Protein 1
Amino acid sequence: MLLDLGIVFGRVAFVMMFMLNLGGILTWVERKQSAIMQDRIGANRASIFGFRVMGLLHPLADAIKMLTKEDFRPARADRFLFSLAPFVSVFFALVAFASIPFGDTLRVGDRVIPLQAVTLNVGVLYVFAMLSLGVYGVMMAGWSSANNFALLGAQRAAALMITAEIAIGASIMGVVMVYGSLNLQDIARAQGNALFPQWLGQWVPAWGVLTQPLGFILFLTAGIAATKRIPFDMPEGESEIIGYFVEYSGMKFGMFAMADFLETVVIAGMTTALFLGGWQVPYLMADGFHFPWGAVATLPQPAVAVLQVGSFVVKVCVVIFFMMLIRWTLPRFRYDQAMRLGWLGLFPLSILNIVLTGVLLLLLGGRA
Amino acid sequence: MAEPVRRDFMLGEGAGTGSGGQQNLHVGVGPAHPAMHGIIRIQTEIDGEFIRKADVEIGYLHRAFEKDCEVGGYNNAIPYTDRLNYVSPLINNFAYAAAVEKLLGIEVTERCKFIRTVMSEISRVCDHLTCVGASAMELGAFTVFLYMIKAREYLWELVEDVTGARLTISYGRVGGVKADLPDGFAAKMTTAFKETREVLDEVHRLLTGNRIFMDRMVGVGVLSREETIGYAITGPLLRAAGVGYDVRRAQPHWAYDRVQWEVPTQKDGDNYSRYLVRMAEMEQSMRIAEQALAMMPGGAINVDFEGRPIDPAAYVDQGKQGKTEGLLLVPITLSPNLQGQNRAAWNQVNAHDKRVVLPPKETTYGSIEGLMNHFMLIMEGYGIRPPLGEAYFATEGANGELGFYVVSDGTDRPYRVRCRPPCLPPLAALHRMIEGEQIADLIPTFGSVNMIGGELDR
C-alpha cells in the first residue's frame, strides 16, 4: 500500500521535476540559442566561485533576483485577482503534462509501473482542458491590473486561445481516428507498429508525422499559437502593448514568463506523444531491438525503459529547439491576421484533414 | 471599492456619466513606452483594436539647440549638431558647416568635398540600418535587428577611425573637416561594405518576401502622394510615395553630381514601400561612397617637406630662439590624437581662408603670422565673422531635407540658427497615417517614419 503510494508519488515527482527543470533551463536555452542565431555571446556572467558553466547559472541568478525584487501592485488593482493570476497560469501549465506518457512501462519484480504521471483514458482532452484553463490566469492578470494595455493583452489572449484550441482540437482528431484512442499511452504504443506492413514490411514505424503529415503541421502551428510566443505573441506584443503582465514585477512576472516556457514544454510533449512516436525508439520492442533485417538484440527491461524515457526527452528537446528557432526568426502577426489564420486557415484545413483521414481509413480498411 | 474609479480610468473622459452609449478606450502610448524611441506621446482613442483618433504630442526632448547656437562662435555649434540626428551625426555637422560656408562665400577644397560625401553616405547607411532594424524588432523579428546592428557596428568602426568617436563625432568644421582620412581607410571601408552587403542580403531573404512581414507592412500607414507633398515631407517617405525628389540630385553639392547613382522610388507610400526605399538607398549610398573614395583627389598625403619630424616643444624652442630658417618646412611629430592634421593633410581638407580656418599646427608654432592667425580665430570676440547676411543650405539627411538657415549680424556669433529637421513634417502627418489602422500598426508606422527625438525637438 505504502509502496504503491510511493510509486505514484515518484511518477508525479518525475514529471514535476522534469517540467520545472526544463522550464528553468529553457530560459537559458532561449538566451543562448538566440545568441548563437544572432552572432552574440549571450548571458555568461553569473558565476559561483568563478565557475560560469556557459551561463547555466543564469536561471538561478534570475530566480534570486526575482524573489528579492519589490512585489509591486498598482493602487487600483484588484488585490485578490492580481495576486491569484500568476499562480493560475503556472498551475495549469504545470499539471497539463500529467497525462503525457514519458515511457511505456517499467517492470520491477512483479510490479508493472506505467511511466506516466496519471493514466487517463481521455488524456488528450485533459491536456487541452488544462491548457485552455491557463488562459484564465492571463485574463485575470489583464483585467485586475487596471491598465489599458494589460486589458488589451488579456482580450487578445482570450481570442487567441479560443482560436488556437479549436485548431488544435480539430487537428488531432485525425490522430485519434488513425490510432483509435484518446488515451495518450495507447496512441504512443500504436505508433510503434509498422506503417503499411503489407508494402513496406517492418521498415517504417507508424509515427503520427507519417500518418498525419498535414495534421502535424496544423497542430504545431496551433500549438505555437497556444504558447503565446512569437509569431503569435499578440497578448504580449512587447513593442505594442507591452502585454497583459505590464504591471507585474518580481516573481509574479517570473511566473508568467515561466508559464510560457512550461506551455512550450507541454506543446512539445504533445507533439512528441502524438506525432513523433512518443517514447518509441525505432525497432525497440519491449524485450529489445527487432531490426527489420532480422537481427535481434535483447535488452533487459529496465534498459528498455531508460532508452524509452531518453528517447522521449530527446524528442521533446528537438521540438523545443525547433519552436525556439521559429520564435527568433519570424515577425509577429497582427491580431486580426492571427484570427484569420486560425479561423480561415488552420480550422478549415483541420476539418479537411479529418475528412481525408476518414476517406483514407475507409479505403485502406481500418487502422494504419 | 475601486469600482467607479477604475471605470473612469479605463474609459477616459465622460465615462461614468451613465450615457450608456458606445465609448472609446483612451490609451496613451508614450512617452514611456518601449516603442517610442526618442520621447513622444501619442494619445489614442481606440475602439477594440482600431485607432479612431490619434493625437501626437512632441517636444519632450526640447533642449534649445537653436538658442544655444547663438551663444557661442560659429564652430561652437558643431558639437550641438551632433546631437540632432544622433544616428547620422556626420550629415548634420557637414550641413551646418556648409550653411556657414555659404554665408561666408567660401569654397571648400576638393578633397574635403569628397570626404564629406563619403562620410555622409556612410552615416546614411548607419541611419537606414538602424531604422529598418528597429522597425523589424518592433514587429518581433529581433534577430534582424541584431544583424543590422552588427552591420552598423562595422560602419561605426569606420566612423570611429576617422573621427575618433562613435556618436558625438564633431568632425565637421566651418571651412573643412577636423582631419584627413586615416591610413588604410579605403581597405577598411571595402571590408565594412562587404559585411554590410552580406547583412542586407540576409535581411532581404528574411524579410522582403516574408508573408508575415508583408502582411504587417503592405498597405499599412499609407500616406498618399498628394498628402505627402502637402505636408512638406521629404526623404524616404516622399520617395516611397512616388516622388523622386532628393536634395542631393535637385541641388547637387559636394561630390554628388560627379558620381553615378539612382534615386530609388516606390509607388504606394505604405510602410512596405518605405522599407524597400530604405533598403535600396543603402545600396546606392554604398555605391556613392565607393565611387567618391575612388575619385578622391590627392589620395595619399604628399610629403612635400624635408627632414625628419621633430618634437613640437623643440620646434617651438627653435622658433623662440630665432632659428626659423627653413623651420616651416620641417614637419612636427603630432600626437596620435591629431592624426591627419599635419600641414599637408590640413591644407588638403580645409579651405585656404585665413578668416575661417585655423592654421596647421606647424604654422602656428613656427611663425608669428600663424600664431596671430590662430589667436584671431580663437580669442573671445574675434573668430569667424561672416558678413552681414543670411544663408540657407540643405542636404539630404537620412530622413529627408536637412537644412540650416544661418543669419549673421557681422559679429563672431550667429544671430540666428534655424534647423529644418526632416522628422518634423512626417510627425505632423503621423495621425493621418495611423487613424483607422489598428493599434498594432501604430508601431511599424511610427518606426517607418524614423523619428529621431534629438532632431525633432531640437
Protein 2
Amino acid sequence: MSSKGNILIVDDELIVRDSLGRWFCDEGYEVGTAGSAREALNLVAQQPWDLALLDIKMPGTDGIELQRRLREIKPNLIVIIMTGYASVDTAVTALKNGAYDYVVKPFDPDEITHTVQNALSHRRAEQENVRLREAVAEVARPPELIGQSTAMKRVFEAIVTVGPTEATALITGESGTGKELVARAIHAASPRKYNRLVVIHCGALAETLLESELFGHEKGAFTGAQYRRKGSFETADGGSVFLDEIGDISLKTQTDLLRVLQEREITRVGGNQSIHVDFRCIAATNKSLEKLLEEGLFRPDLYYRLNVFRIELPPLRDRREDVPLLVEHFIRKFSGSMNKRVGSVSREAVDKLQHYGWPGNVRELENAVERAMVVAQEGELGEKDFSLTLASSESADQTLEEAERAHILRVVEACGGNQTQAATVLDIDRVTLHNKLKKYGWKRTPVESP
Amino acid sequence: MSLIQLLPVGDAEPSWLGTLAPALTAEFGVRCEILTAKLDPRFSLHPERQQYLSTEILARMQAYLAPNSYRLLGITPLDLYIPILTFVYGEAQLDGPCAIVSTYRLRQEFFGLPPDEDLLQLRLLKEAVHELGHTLGLTHCQNYECPMAASHTVELIDLKGTKLCAGCRAQSLGKFHQ
C-alpha cells in the first residue's frame, strides 16, 4: 500500500507518540515522532513532511512557538495543534498563526482521522491548483513573440502596461507581424487569463454569419438555425474577445458592436432579450482605420471606443536585427517537429535574410525557415537552402509594386543606406528614390547608420 | 499445530465465544478453542474515564499463552481505550500473538436502540477477524468491504464483510501454516 502522507507527531509524552504513531501507521501513513521542539526542527530540516501534529504544552519551546518557527522555515507544512484542554484562547492563537485546525485530547478516532484526511486533501488541492495555474500560464505564454529591437521592446512594454488593465487594446500592423500573438500576450498578462480568449477573424465571415458568431442566435432566427447558440461575447464570459481584422466589418455590424462595447449587453440574432456580457475587448487590423474614417467606412464613435490603447507592430523590415533571433527560434521549433538535427544557420544566410524585404513579415520568415529545413541536410542552414525565398522577391507571383519595393529596398540596403549611390544603381532620380522609400516605410536602422 | 484461543476478559457472554469459535475456524482454517480461564481486567480501569486500557490488558494476556497457542484473542464486554483516543473497538499486537475485541460499542443498546443479538455477533466476528488480521501482520485495507478496512464507526463496520479480501487472505493465511 502506498503511503497516504508523511505525518510528524511532536509530543513530550512517549505514550502519546507511540499510540498515535501506531494509529496513523495502521491508517497507512508514514509516521515520524519527536519528543521536543528541537528534535522536531531537526527532523523537519532532514526530510519533507506533509503534516505536523504539535502538542501545545511541552517543556522548553511549546507548540505555539514551534509552530511559528516551522512557519518560517516550512510555510507549506500543515500544522494541527493538539491540546489537552478545549481552550478558546489557545485555539484562536494557533489558528491566527496559521494552524489548519486544533484537536482536543483524547481524540475521537473518527474525528482525528477526518481532520488529518481533510487537511491533506485541502493541501493537495492547493498544490494541484498551483500546478494547473503554472501549466495554464505556460500554455498561455506566446512563445513566438520574439525580438530585442527597440521597436519590439516598446511593444513588450506596452503589453506589460495594458495587460493587467481592462482597457480596450487596438493592435495595428501589417499582415504577418504577429497581431494575434500580441493579443494573446495581453490576455495572458491580464487577470482574465484563466478564462477564455475567443478569437474572431471578422474578415473571414459574411455579415450575417459574423453577427451570429459575435452575438449568437435564437433557434429559428434564420434558415439552418436549428438550435439556440451562444455568441463569442457570451462564450468569452470573464475572458477576452479578440476581434481580428476589425477594419473589414460592415457599418451595420459596427453599430451593433458599439452597443456591446458601451452597454456590455448583447441581443442574440432573432432574440429580443438583452444579455449582460463580461469580456475585455482586444481588436486588430492591418488597415488604416483613420483612412477608413475619412472614407466614411468606419464609425468614428466605434473608432474612439477601440482606440483606447494602441500598439503598433513594426514590419520585419524595420527590425532587421531581430531576424537572426527569429530564425534561431524557428529552427528550434521545426527541429523538433521534423526530427532534423539542424542546429544553426550560416552567417552568409543570415546576412541575406536580414537584407530581404519580408513583405509577409514574420509569418513569411517562419515559412521560409520551414521550407529551408525541409530541403536542408543536417547541420547548418546555408544560403542555398533559402534560395527559393530569396529568389521569390523576383518571382512571378508578386505584384509590380511588391517587386519594386523589394528590389529598391535590397539595393538601398546593399548600398549601406546611401541613397545617392542607390539611385545611381537603380538609375532613377534621387528625389524619386526618396519618395518611394518614404512610401514603402523604409527607415535607416541604427546598425546601418552608425 | 496452529491454534487460535479465545480468552474471556471480564464477564464475556459464553454464547458470543461459542458462536465466534467455529466462524473463526471457517475463516482462517485453523482450530479455535475457548479457554476456561478468565482474565479480570480491573487493574486496567481508568477511574475518571471509566474505561479499560487495552494496551495493559494485552500485556497481561501474555501469561495465558499456552505452548501450543498461536494467537490469543480476548473478548470483553467492557469499554476499551488507549490514552490518545476516546475509545477503541479493539487492539492487537501487530505481527504479535495477542489481540482483544470489545463488544461495548458494537451493541445497538449503546446507541439507544433495541438489542439485536445477531447484529452484535456479526459485528463481533468482523472485528475479531480485523484484530486477528493485525496479529498476522496485516495493516488496514483500502477495500471497504474487507474486514481489514479501517472503521471508526459501526456504520463502517456494517459495510464490511466477514471474509478477508483476496489480497489480505494471500498475505495472512500462510502464516498459520508456517
